[in-house]
Amino acid sequence: MRTGRTILALALAAAAACGCAHAPPSAHGGDAAPAIIPDSLTIGLWRMDETGGLLVGDAGRFRLAGRAGIDTRTDFGRIRGARLFTRSIDSFVYVAYAPVFETPDGITVEAWIYLNAYGQYEDTPIAARWTQQANEQSWMFSVLGLNTRPPLARLVGPGYHDGLIAQTTGGRGKLMFAFQPEDASPPRAYFSARLIPLEKWVHVAVSFDGVLVRFWIDGELDAQFATRAAIRSSRAGLVIGNYIDPRWLSDLGGDLRIATAPDLNPYYAFDGFIDELRISSEARPEFGYAKSGAGR
Fold this sequence. Notes:
Number of helices: 3
Shape: globular
Number of domains: 1
Structural class: mainly beta
Radius of gyration: 20 Å
Oligomer: single chain
Number of strands: 18
CATH architecture: Sandwich
CATH topology: Jelly Rolls
CATH class: Mainly Beta
Helix content: under 10%
Order of helices and strands: HEEEEEEEEEHEEEEEEEEEH
Strand content: 25-35%
């Protein structure tokens, strides 16, 4: 007599043989939205579709592959796979500096994100070319956090971004785009009108053409600000899902990890998924592919 386990195995084998087997559906949206297509404006497109490992491929023409920290992992995403970032100092993707990161004619940064929680401190970067080293501040795209202090927070934060968030009267959950102008003036920061909800896939984007900063949420224009400037060039690489100093990094043993940070508290770590991150060399005027998959 065949056991229930045997019958189940035979049924699964038959389904696979006839092409009827299905991958388990994504808990966060799956393939409902169309994939972003790289074009001539695409500097880098990190789809986060890897099925494992710590190498993060770039689908753009420059092949700017990144390396993930040991406390990220791959999982189902908004479009195929995504990378899950956690509250850890070793949760990040680092892409080394390349001259194509400099965008004198404008920039667009966009991604699908799924936030599990807001950060405890000033913000949690989605992507940034910004460090504490002298002359290594170009731009940063992030989500505002709770900005808590002890005793609500376990530790006093380093306050690296206090001067940026001081430029808003808003609160947690707003998008922030900060950039350092090319001239010797203070950094400028701008903020979305809407909050980014938790536990929901949202397409977020910011564009800047040297005259207007525009925020887009799920393909719809959310806010815009007039500001005439050029973003300063720097030797900063790209950090995704955290705010770290590349001087802290070590690849001892083959894995990229933080080795020399002042402390190991994950002040700025993104908590959630990032998918289909793209940086473009001009301000894109629309995001129709985001509208078609919004809210799922």
